[in-house]
Request: fold
Amino acid sequence: MRNLFRYSTLIFTLVYAIAYGQSINELSNSILQSELKEEEKLDSLLSLTKNQVRMNTDSGRVAAKILLWQSEKFQNDNYRGDALHYIGVSYAWQGNYEMAMDYYNQALKAYEINKDPGRMSLIHTSIGGVYFDQNKYLENLDYWLLAKSYSEKGDDKKRTETCNNNLGVLYLRIGKDQEAKALFEENLALGLKNGWVVSAGYAYINLAGIYLSNNQLDTAELYARKSFEIHEKVGNE
Reply:
């Protein structure tokens, strides 16, 4: 319990420090000099990397490279893959797809050593995303189908929901409305079964869009109203 408390406290401290502009090197050093166990340090560096990539791709890349160095030091392939993945993300978000794909492929090789389903799903999603952004939909489809397959293998229903949304958007883009509809219906069922109210709301509006495009106006309105009621109830403006 003490270790969990120290770990939770450090994560809170990192978020607070990030907000006040503490440097990546200072934050990384505070993690590495802490009393956390080896994997907890790597997980803290990963959390730091994720936060930084969202706020600033360049500083996120620096954090990811520190994670890469530590993961290699501790000989941890999963976290080495995470580091390579988020270096790739930093390049993809800057539109440098060549560099992004280079790091994504390195990450995939690292992940393939242990084949953690969640990580395998995520990296296939990212690789597919590069193809999607370049309108290379056939290549994109192969990777996103694999991403969903891994999410199901890991029984990660939230990850499956994300994969369904991605695939649904792709199917709409290539004119396969019925395939997209089936995925959005699957997400609606997941949302209703698991009490994911907002997820159900998004599934309803996605389905409403399909019914609208097929001129099924009554059904489109019904689903749109259901979505509106959910988002209004939870205050999702």
